[in-house]
Fold Outer membrane protein TolC.
Amino acid sequence: MSKVRFITLLIFLPVCSIFAQEKTLSKEEAVAKALENNFGIEIAKGQVDIAENNASVLNSGYLPTLTGTAAATYNNNNTTTEFPGQFNDDGSARDDISIDGAESQRYSAALNLNYTLFDGLGRYYNYKRLKEQYQLSTLQARETIENTMIQMFTVYFEIARLTENRNVQKQALEISRDRITRSEYSFEYGQNTKLDILNAQVDMTNDSIALLNTEQQLANAKRDLNVVLNQDLSSQYMVDTTVVFIPKFQIVEFMDQAIANNVAVLQTETNLNINAYDIKVNKSGYLPTIGLTGSYGWNRNQNAPSAFLTGAVFPGTNSNVGNYALGASLTWNLFDGGSTTVSVKNAKIAYANQELLRKQVELEVNRDMQNAMALYENLLKIYQIQEQNVFTNENNFERSKEQFQLGSITSIEFRQAQINLLNAQTNKNLAKYDAKLAELQLLQLTGQLLNIEL
């Protein structure tokens, strides 16, 4: 087997055996898998569930508390009762009375109800605050999802770019292999020297190494995407290499509505609402607290036998069933040393700081959007230029190929035309996916990343 055929088999057989079994992973499928399986998104969903539980009526303080108590006591005593200086009717000394194993039991059970009727509206505003906390958690989960989508698409587009680069390099390798065949035929007929064959073999070796490196990078990128999608690291698939850009007028509309939709701005507004409720919760300390209490109880006492002066021994039983009580209380902290006043002042300062932070975030979002839009437009222009450059280099390569076959140019000049075309194609691939990724990052800033069709 010749060296050329060996290199060809070395490159193409593994590639064909692997990629013939691959299925296409669409962008929609990748997004669905990321939303369902990604670890970061799953953790964010758990945080939302915790916030939802905290914002339920069970954590609001509006419901009463009901406690049950029960007790049982058992005693076993040996007692002796003496009667010094006491006599019976017949004049004899009165005998001592001994009671062994005197048992007594006591049982009790009760239900106690407590309900806060009014607490200065503290629980009312705290309940609203918990609702805002839940809203904040959903926004934080959305931010996690958006960042995960950008991460996922970054890797997805890298796979797409490397896939297209691999196809281009396979074509370049095929051209170099064909060059060797032609050079060998020409050498046999005395039309060129051995040097042309060696040059072609060197170029084919370089193309083979470039293709192998691209295959390795592609395999690594797929493993990276498998991590993002939380699937088997050995999963093999192809990706969709088509890219559709959103019309500019639609992006401009999104930018006009960005302040109302950007997740960072929405988080600052939600924090502002939380700070407003903090002020009201702290002010509730100035008002009284009114509470209601109720209880229902049962008691039973089984007394031990005891000696009376008459000398008889009697056990006793006492039961109280259905004892209940109702009560009301009013507590008004007329002066707490100033702690409530300090808490209210600090809450107002925190609210003012949050207002400043919101203005800062809005300004930064507007700046980031302008920068992202400028970058997107620049990359889109570069992509259009690279498309035209590929068209120009394809024409140049075809003409160079014709002239090379006619012997009008050398193999070095033909190789240069081939390299120029290869570079133009890979640069176009890079520009295309860079522009699309810049578009997605711009959409993230406008708050529309999760609302567009892929």
Observations:
- The first helix runs from residue 3 to 19.
